Amino acid sequence: MGFGIEAASYYVPSLYLEIKDLAEKRGIEPAKLEKGLGLHKMGFPDVHEDAATFAAEALLKLIKDYNLNPKEISRIYLGTESAIDAAKPTASYAMQMAEKVLETEFGERCFKNCDVVDMTFACIGAVDALHNSLDFVRVNPEKKAIVIASDYAKYELASSGEYTQGGGAVALLVSAKPDLIEIENNWGVATESVFDFFKPRRQFKKEDLENSPENFPDKIEIFTDEPVFDGQYSNQCYQDRIREAYNHYKEITKRDKPYEDWKYLIFHLPYAFHGKRVFTEIYSLENGLSYETQDEQKTVAKSEDYLNFINKKIEKSQRASSEIGNMYTASIFMALLSAMQTSFNENEELAGNEIGFLGYGSGSKSKVFAGKVSENWKKVVEKWNLFENLKHRLAIDFDTYEKLHRKQLEHSVNPDYKGFGLQSVELENPVLKGARYYGYKG
Ligand SMILES: CC(=O)SCCNC(=O)CCNC(=O)[C@H](O)C(C)(C)COP(=O)(O)OP(=O)(O)OC[C@H]1O[C@@H](n2cnc3c(N)ncnc32)[C@H](O)[C@@H]1OP(=O)(O)O
Q1: Which of 45, 231, 246, 408 has a CA between 20 and 30 Å from the CA of residue 283?
Q2: In CATH, what number is assigned to the domain containing residue 37?
């Protein structure tokens, strides 16, 4: 019996900023962002959107598109590093939002017996949720689990992370009927505790709050949603961890050069070109090429063989990222959707092909694993229309982007939005202070 992903859906923020507008305002050469990092558009949430609404949208779409009975879902595990609360899981908010909409068809509290939780390890939290849920269905093959990856990648204005912002969610149905892809049970893992990118709890004292209330507008935010990070160091940690996890994967599978067998290499993509930029090291090691000096590294990156390899095995996975930006936990799964949607659109047969995954989460951990595309994959992918749907987002100008970023707008940029939205946050009632209330516009 095989285990893996039976179905998948996604949601991207309803707004976007053209990356060239950001480049112009920040005095960055657009070619660096477009041709150097592969960025074109940056998905950005409207006032009413957050990691909980993204997750709810992807969850509801999964249930509706594939006619699932929510009462048959045993668990919803959500990977996120944009949790909206430090105790109450974002998954519980998403679950409740979906429950309300599903009430007419399935009655009240259709997820009453569902096990719901968040998992956090920066960008790899949803891979952990998938790993864990696969173990769960292996032990309970009659059960189904949903894994949601949902995040809002936000960096400080004018920082070097600003152009790698984005957001959105991917939801996966995990079961013993892997119609999309069957995931094998071999996991290369590498972990090291480092400070390459992290979100410390905000350290503030009561006096600070009283003396400068403008720094604490809602007085309830306890996490900084913008990370502390060192970009080049985070690149190095990513490269080191994936090398170690890849070697571990080789060790446990006793395979030589597994990447050569993979139809696609699916990376966590903090920006579109990241995977192809960092894989040069593993590629060099696997092919006996010198990789010591910067010149040698550039030679590998620019070689005809490497460029052909990228075109064949990585390029299609980058396309959605170029249009959305970083989705943190959801990026690796969106890279999978991007590659499979492109193959689908090009009438390419993928059944039986092996796909390799290289996940990374800052802080830091990598997991390398692989799966085989199922006979029924097209039946799953035909629901996505990924690139078509990306065209339906609303463009915002730079001024609106900055206001949204600074949380200066009280009302949604698009007041006619459809779907889930934050309606209010309780600020007065001491026993509910900080509670977030969401609604749905059909
Ligand atoms: C969160 C995680 O997943 S950890 C791993 C990634 N880290 C992050 O995402 C943290 C947040 N982001 C950041 O810190 C930064 O935006 C980074 C690290 C991603 C990028 O850093 P930068 O210093 O802006 O860019 P960097 O110098 O690394 O790369 C620019 C690329 O554009 C290329 N470039 C520069 N100018 C041009 C141009 N005019 N035309 C074409 N290409 C250009 C450079 O050559 C380089 O590409 P190459 O090395 O492949 O040749």
Answers
A1: 231
A2: 3.40.47.10
